[in-house]
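Lab manual, section 2.4: Encoding a predicted structure.

Procedure: take the sequence of the chain (710 residues), apply the prediction step described in section 2.3, and record the output as structure tokens. A sample record is shown.
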Amino acid sequence: MEEISFLSQTLAVLFLLIISSFTYILSKRINFPYTVLLVIVWLLLIPISHIPIFSFIDDFQLTPNLLFYVLLPVLLFEASYNMNYRQLIMNWKTIAWLSIFWLIISWALIALWLFYLFPFVGLHIPFMVCLLFWVLISATDPVAVLSIFKSLWAPRRLTIIFEGESLFNDGTAVAMFLVVLWLIIDWGNIWASTFLDGTLKFASMVWGWIIFWWFTGFLFSKILWYIKNNEEAEIVITMLLAHITFIFAELITEKFPFLPISWVIATVIASIVIWNYGRYKITPRVEIHMHKFWEFFAFISNSLVFILMWLILSDLDINFSEFIIPLFVAILVVMISRIISVYIPVWINNFFKIEDHIPNSWSILLSWWSLRWALALMMVLLIPWVGDVGYEKILLFQQTVWWNYDYSIKDFLLVLTIWCIMFTLFIKAPTTPIIMRRLWIDRLHKLEEFEYEEWKILSNLKIIQKLNLSFKKAYLTQNEYDELKDKYSEKLNHAVKKMKKVLEEKWADPKTLIRRALSLHALWIEKQYLKELFLYNEIDEKNFKYILRKIEKQIERLESSHEQLSSISNKKNDYDIFTRCVVHIYKRTSTDLDSYIRNRTRLIITRKVIKELRILAEIDFWFDKSLFDEIIELYAFFNKQADEKRIKIFTNHKATINAVESRLVNKSLLKLEEKTIKDLYHKEIITPKLYFKFMDEIEKEMYSDVKKMA
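Recorded output:
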């Protein structure tokens, strides 16, 4: 019988995952949010499951523990994996204001208003239950909105503000939920000191162990470095980081209840560290697979969470019609609270100029989105149920507060939470893109418009060059070549005319904009070749990150409408606090060899920039060519400066530098060898077996001294 039950559960999982996959494909075809469409499908499956042939669907049992300890870490890790800590630091005041005001105002409005409004609709809900609902509904979910943002080109700063606020709210919501649940469970033994104890527990969960979990991220980053070039192991390490951090935080909280830790905050911090500090320790060719792995894992996790919600809905023995008015009241109160908690901190920020101005259109979107999803549902499931530890105390609390309803407190909160999620998915998610378009939030700003037209010109030029090469090699007939060349030549001419029109119509001072765009282009070339040198181990990680920070700082200056620095600066106001500490430590540990490697690297990448800019200068972009000359002249200065410093160090340390140069020249030859092998493989001169054998040998030699450089 057990075997049949296991087979039926397996069949149910496979069937539901197949349904999820086809739903995802359909959502892409009809351009409809996947999560919303999936809910519709699950609701249709409820009556279908009562048909005998599909009755096996009900055999599937997805336990809350499986969701909480296996799937939630995945969703948290994936949501914060690509978050740039520098962008977070640049906007930390806005994020903090939004989070703090949401915490205060939502408590004052949601918990108190519902406590006083519910009796008017026939419900007498204890204040502690209203407080628990406030905590549940405070958790926002960035995953759904971020996918919309990516497709609609939302401004980067708006995205980072939303991500930061959502993740901070998630951490504080879980911490507050555990404190409030603990107060409910110990309701019979509440004293004045209990609330102080609860406050201390909340502070410990939110702040007490941030440094420790930051260290955990660094530790796993080091492990990634030492197992470099082992693709499968590297992916597993990141998965272990997400789950070990989460579970270890839970174990510490269980064993040392006087010093609890928020597993949400722990997992988020570890994810941010592994992305910002550890990603360059990952073998470069694995990085793409890493992203795909986490996207896939998050897709499966989200789909399974939907399955859980569908199962819960189908099992609840509650008359939902009784909750229509209370649900409407709850949703309205939450929406009003959100609007107030957004507009007050945004007004304070703009009036006192605490950080860069936040447009009113952003405030509207920030007020509207506040999406609720997986975390809120999982927190409800943490409330003890029949057979769980603490269930008797929940029953005692219900008796103490005169809970006289046929359903339990947990069922009541499940109904409210699930229907708030439904409102989010069916109303907020589909309308968010519409609001963004109506408010013009998705439009390109000036610099992006210029870059868009610039890249259209460059892409069409590259296609034409490729067509010419293909025709010379007789891959195309004369008719095919003429037809394709005419097509892309027309596209090129159209792009050039569009750029000219954009420059003439939209900007009074186009030279400043063009200069910024070309400077950004040059910096991205620098970054590209710097990563290539790091990939081939021609620069060690410490010096790589030092130069990378300089480039990223320059990019941030230009994107913030400042001029590019004409020299390498180390002024305090050029860096955030964290980077200042890193630079200070680096200076104390820096050697003449480090200086030589940095200047050698700058010499190479500035030479590459000059070469590519000269090629671009030959293209007719319909603006003054002297602007190219300005940027080329600046990089010629950088190049000369780096070369002079390199020669000076070489003169003083000839023996040491010669040994280093010998190793670096060998890396360059290995790079050439790799490119030759790839070319032979693509031309099918060597077999796949020989290709992989060659590549393994090259990579082994390429990273033979990688541990010495760590």
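Check your result against the sample. The chain has four domains: 2-59, 64-438, 446-504, 512-652.
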